[in-house]
Amino acid sequence: MQDEDRAFYRLAVQQAQSAYAIKAIHPLFFYWVSDPALDNDSMKKEGYKFYMLGMVGYFCFQIVLVFAASQALKSR
Questions:
Q1: 17-62, pLDDT tens digit by residue?
Q2: What is the rounded CA–CA span in Å between residue 10 and residue 13?
Q3: How far apart are CA 73 and CA 76, in angstroms?
Q4: Residue 58: how many CB atoms within 10 A of its CB?
């Protein structure tokens, strides 16, 4: 569930509570998709993409640190 949709779900719960005199202490919110496997695969691919982006970013950061350290030690 997207965070920006959460307020609308809570509003729907509040409306149901007042209209039907029910009590929902901890409501569970779900969203339905037509193809759950495809949705799961797309989230998996997106997670893998961010993982690889983090790995490459960290590798580049380490290259810069090693270069800076080698230049600092070389000038001694």
A1: 999 999 999 999 888 899 999 999 999 999 999 999 999 999 999 9
A2: 5
A3: 6
A4: 10
Helical ranges in the chain per DSSP H: 3-20, 36-74
Residues 6+ apart with CB under 8 A from 5: 31
What type of residue is 35? D
Q: Which amino acid is at 19?
A: A
Quick one: CA torsion of 31, 34, 38, 42, rounded to 10 degrees?
Answer: -40
Copy the structure tokens of residue 19: 């209209």
Q: Is 30 helix (H, G, I), strand (E, B) or coil?
A: coil
Does 13 or 3 have the greater pLDDT score?
A: 13
Question: Which conformational region is residue 11 in: left (phi greater than 0), alpha (psi within -120 to 50 degrees), or beta?
Answer: alpha
